[in-house]
Batch of 3 targets.
Target 1
Amino acid sequence: MTLYNLKGRHLVWLVDYTREDILHIIETGIMFKRRYYAGERVIPVLSGRTIAMIFEKPSTRTRVSFDVAAWQLGAKAISLSWNELQLGRGETIGDTARTLSRYVDGIVARVREHGKIVELSRYSRVPVINGLSDLVHPVQALGDYMTIMEKKGRIEGLKIVFVGDGTDNVLHSLLLAGSKLGAHLVVASPRELRPSKEILDHALEAARDTGGTIEIVDNPEDAVAGADIIYTDVWVSMGQEAIAEKKIELLKQYQVNSRLMEKAGSRALFMHCLPAKRGQEVTDDVIDGPQSIVWDQAENRLHVQKAILALLIP
């Protein structure tokens, strides 16, 4: 099994990954999935490796999928909460990174502030993989684009519409990756909840080179016309409880429901990174309906993360 030239690299936020890098991860994920369903549950390309998984925030999909992915590659995963480490008692992130990277071959971390991932990667001598930060969620976006590739056969030229909170970390990663893949990305969000300028600047620069486009609009009904993909996420993320009421009020016109899906048309597929707040950002009839691909999307986290680990871990 020949692997690409990503060995030893960190995966912090996809800005430093090329179109070719991203496509290779997606294609490798599809290959792992194909072999999985052909009966190859374990492909031990990381036999003897150990991966530390640090969780400052709760997780279902990220934790389980990375744990299983490591096992299916022949590696051992060690799951650690923030407070199980000396980080919870004041040890610096730099000292933790220096220590862990003498023991393990890679670090997956799910953190509250993006700066913590940046600092981990600065001091670690082994690859650091961002399992989620408040700014971005790159492994989610890679799994999402793998799913779109499976369902639509391509990404370039597709109209992908995100409806809801424009400050969303998953959206930020969808913009960074999608712009490099030549997608036409539309964000329908309130003016008070627009994407990070830093993220938009990077994405717009990438789109100029690939023929992709990025459009930010107010009206979700106008946005979804002719869409290939409609995507949403929770309106209130972990740690935002203090502003929950304000955000819900701002976003109440941005629910993905059957009326909005009808505006998009029958070719539009529905995606959500989960967990979903049913009845808030999406209705039951949409997430459980015939245009929903959220469960394939959730499964593909496992296969794309096998690709990420196999390609990055030396």
Note: The mean pLDDT is 96.
Target 2
Amino acid sequence: MTESNEPEITFFAKQERIYPKRVWGRYRKLKWVAMVITLGIYYLAPFIRWDRGPNAPDQAILIDLPNRRAYWFFIEIWPQEVYFLTGILILAAVALFFVTSLFGRVWCGYFCPQTVWTDLFVWVERIVQGDRNKRKKLREGPWTFEKLWKMAATHFLWLVIAWVTAGSFVLYFNDAPTLVWSFFELNVSSTVLAFIAGLTFSTYVMAGFAREQVCIYMCPYARFQSAMFDSDTLIIGYDEVRGEKRGKHKKGEPWDGRGHCVDCTACVQVCPMGIDIRDGLQMECIACGLCVDACNNIMDKVELPRGLIRYDTERRMSLPEAERSKKVVHLMRPRTFYYVVILALVGGVMLYALITRAPQELHVLHDRNPLFVALSDGSIRNGYVLKILNKTHDHRRYSVSVEGLENVVLEIQGAGDIQPENLYVEADSVGSFHITVSAAVEAGPPVPVTFILIDKQSGERSVYESIFVSERG
């Protein structure tokens, strides 16, 4: 065999690492504020207490998987109330569409977890290794003692942040102070440790290495964001009319016959996505505004007005400069009005459901085998399983009765002397009882019956429709 000297053909370019340059300005300050607030909420929220009484957890935000409950301050969601979760997801999606139609991808640029933790990791990287040029030179240079300790320190700090992030996530599923103290006592379950290890690794990889690739290749939002844009959506844009023809500029030179863009590429160097906003709006743009800060700083240096790159609408950008000030930004338009209506409807339905939700629920399941039993006295007996949901935080006693049959005899099957007039259910739990209903009825089609549950303390009433079977079909 002979070796071929032909170059290897590749169909995909290698992903080039992005080294965002430090910049300071209005939008960079907003990003710092957003980072501090969002991370503060994420790390500290599990430790907020909320008094629900002696028989319920006092953690304000808790997803209690063993007991199948979700708590959010004064709201408690049971598995049977999964429609609340559906409503929350619908509200979140429509709110995202609404904000996007107004201000573009501000969620991506300021509040998305991927953006927030990537920003934090880049900040750590900059603190240890230096700004853009130093980081690039260090990574591309040979392995020296300086490179070794700086890279080691960077990755160690990344792992610490990732571990704290993973541990904080697990706190939302456990009592936070108890779990934290269990770490000091070295008494943490293997399940918790496995979740923390997996989340630590994913955070480390996503924020430390994947970064912008998550937004470009993994997040579906970037793919359909343009469907929510219109000519009145605020987006980041480059004023091509004012900026072109671009070129280098020396102090004292006239601006006649040329644009205000000095082709310094500062907007490209600060972009965490590595794009050139001067090429127009692109799928990768997350509307963080750092290119606006970088360009404004350059305009200040060359003594030109700010706003060569700015937040503006496509409609205003297309107008001559003299007419732009006359064109206002329309926040309320058909698209945004529809989103507001949907938000109001879904929010109203959820609020009504929360206000009118009953403190108890009754579910009845008819026995399948046997469907009925013919007793020696000629009466028919049916068996049922009653599920009583006590959604209050107090122990309660209930009475159950049946309507639709005459001379009904109710009996509770099980250990002890349990009477239908005195069913005990602990706070925030489900009581299960097997009950038999006997009545003197002739064989015939199923008879509709109604089970009535009454809280003996509050008088709250719940009903459930079922059937009484007296012959095989």
Note: The chain has two domains: 15-357, 360-468.
Target 3
Amino acid sequence: MRLRIFYSTIVLSDIHLGTSNSKTIEVSNFLKSVNCRRLILNGDIIDGWALRKGSTRKWQKKHTDFFKIIMKMMEKQGTEVIYVRGNHDDFLDGLVPMSFYNIKIVREFIHESHGRRYYVTHGDIFDTVTTRAKWLARLGDVGYTFLLWLNSAYNKYRIKGGMSYYSLSQAIKQKVKSAVSYISDFEHELVRFAHARKCNGVICGHIHHPENTYYDDIHYLNSGDWVETLSALTEDEDGKWEIVRYEDVINSLVDGSTINVAS
């Protein structure tokens, strides 16, 4: 039996199930390789915007399988699941807040660990483009979809040449001044809000940019996404947070280098 890596908490966001760019197989494989007490699904897990567009993006068996894996985690491991509503899964608005079995569906959440309080939000409420001009956000979504298509084509070329995966879309965003400025403003706004809520840190997603840093005394954490970066946030038994990448986790299991393993 393959050993699983154990974490106290895992945070996933921005999987965008229902889109062609979602790395559903990879995120499912990731969950099959881990155990955790608490799994936080921090928004945009299901992409309702894409599913409403019609026949080009349909719900597939692999998307259902993703949730079956989570159900097994709940049944076999006793994992608590916190589903935080994001902007792309805004169809949940009529349900939140809701609790059943070992699942909570919420708009926001306070994660308490080792005497520290983390404000958990998808992050879209701090994005004025999303909250005040949804039509503009959807227009931007079209451009982002094109960027991801370009990224996919570029990486097919790299794979044929024997080269490893490279996120062209991430590299482009990090060189565009307006994108860099937007990310910085987004982070500072969330940090200010966490401080106002008397929290020690904030955990978010939304901008597809994984981060683990401090702004003064506030711990800022972003789980990234499963469209470009294939990243997650993990918290160990001692309360230490890390950004983990899909490739690193899978490689650690293959070469047997994992040291923090569930029994």
Note: The first strand starts at residue 5 and ends at 12.
